[in-house]
């Protein structure tokens, strides 16, 4: 029961932080949204900062489980078409999973206030993606699927426009389908340019 309440608190906090930011969210409103009093929240978390840190820990684990990470890599594709399928699978998770969308919004809002949020934003929006695809591209080069080049530079060139289009989906959700088409077209262009036929 206590774990259920803790999870409910974190879910409500994620939603409120993604809409109002950390400073714009207060414990009284958070507890009221759950049908609790403030002391009911403080029974599980000693402060708003404790909720924030528990939420960041949860975000890291959730993202790694559902999207991937350097420690939890997807398998290296066995074909060029599989690279596009893997990319689109990862993108669909990113733009359709509400928890990941809210996480991205929280990190975007809080990256200027909180050092840990800034580090996670950099990791999830840039360096983590580059590291994942550096390993994927190195593996594909070893399989003879894409031509030899600097895998880190290829990963940077591949993930940066995709990441920009994902952020566009957050800002302007009505453009999501167009952004998905552009990402798939970009992936196919990359394959046509760097793939070994």
What is the gist of this entry?
The protein is an all-alpha fold. The protein is about 75% helix and about 0% strand. Helix 8 (about 150-170) runs antiparallel to helix 9.
Report on the biggest sheet: none
Q: How many structural domains in the coordinates? A: 2
| Helix fraction by DSSP (H/I, runs of at least 4) | over 70%
Number of strands: 0
Number of helices, where a helix is a run of at least 4 consecutive DSSP H or I residues: 9
Order of helices and strands: HHHHHHHHH
Low-confidence stretches: none
Radius of gyration: 19 Å
Indicate the overall shape: elongated
Portion in strands? under 5%
Mean pLDDT: 91
How far the N terminus sits from the C terminus, by CA atoms, comes to 57 Å
Structural class by secondary-structure content = mainly alpha
Describe this structure in words.
The chain is mostly helical and 197 residues long. It has 2 domains: 1-55, Homeodomain-like (Arc Repressor Mutant, subunit A); 67-194. The protein is 75% helix and 0% strand. The protein is built from 9 helices and no strands. The protein has helices at 2-20, 27-33, 38-42, 48-66, 80-96, 98-110, 115-142, 151-171, 176-194. Helix 1 (2-20) crosses helix 4. The N and C termini lie far apart (57 Å).
């Amino acid at each position: 029961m206590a774990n259920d309440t803790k999870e409910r608190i974190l879910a409500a906090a994620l939603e409120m932080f993604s809409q109002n930011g950390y400073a714009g969210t207060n414990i009284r409103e958070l507890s009221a949204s759950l049908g609790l009093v403030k002391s009911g929240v403080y029974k599980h978390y000693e402060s708003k900062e404790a909720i924030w840190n528990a939420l960041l820990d949860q975000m890291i684990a959730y993202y790694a489980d559902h999207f991937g990470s350097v420690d939890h890599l997807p398998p290296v594709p066995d074909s060029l078409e599989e690279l596009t399928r893997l990319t689109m699978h990862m993108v669909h998770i990113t733009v359709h999973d509400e928890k990941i969308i809210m996480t991205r919004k929280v990190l975007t809002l809080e990256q200027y206030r909180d050092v840990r949020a800034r580090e996670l934003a950099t990791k999830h929006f840039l360096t983590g993606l580059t590291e994942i695809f550096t390993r994927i591209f190195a593996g594909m080069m070893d399989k003879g699927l894409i031509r030899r080049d600097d895998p880190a530079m290829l990963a940077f060139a591949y993930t940066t426009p995709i990441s920009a289009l994902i952020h566009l989906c957050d800002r302007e959700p009505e453009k999501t389908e167009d952004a998905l088409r552009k990402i798939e077209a970009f992936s196919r262009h990359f394959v046509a340019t760097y793939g070994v036929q």
